Amino acid sequence: MRGAELVVDLRGQALTTLDDFWEAVREPCGLPDWFGRNLDAWADAIDARGVSEVIDRHDTLTVHADRQGLFADTGNGTDNPEARALAATFDGTRNRLVLHP
């Protein structure tokens, strides 16, 4: 049986690097010790599935984060190329990244 939505709220956490992001989502997303901590591994976990039993038990994943640090920007997009690449792994339907001011 699958649940409707897994919500991971990272607001208030200091996320300045991708490593910070991986560490922040590791536990709430149930990522295994062997998780690759890279964008391809994350895309597999949230899109292809089969990496995390926690994510797999839900129809959708929504990650909330502050628009600062890793996700800081000065316009509509994010200025950090790593953050842009990370944001691109979310398809906006089955998995979403919501950035808050």
Q: Regarding CATH, which class? A: Alpha Beta
Cα-atom Rg, whole angstroms?
13 Å
Order of helices and strands: EHHHEHE
The major pleated sheet works out as:
3 strands, parallel
Spatial ordering of strands, largest sheet: 1-2-3
Shape: globular
How many helical stretches? 4
Q: What share of the residues does DSSP label as strand, in percent?
A: 15-25%
How helix-rich are the residues, as a percent range? 25-40%
User: What is the count of distinct domains?
Assistant: 1
- Write down how many β-strands occur, each being a DSSP E stretch of 2 or more residues: 3
N-C termini distance = 35 Å
Fill in the CATH topology: Barnase, Chain D
Helix- and strand-based class?
A: alpha/beta
CATH architecture: 2-Layer Sandwich
* Low-pLDDT windows of residues: none
Name of the CATH superfamily: Barstar-like
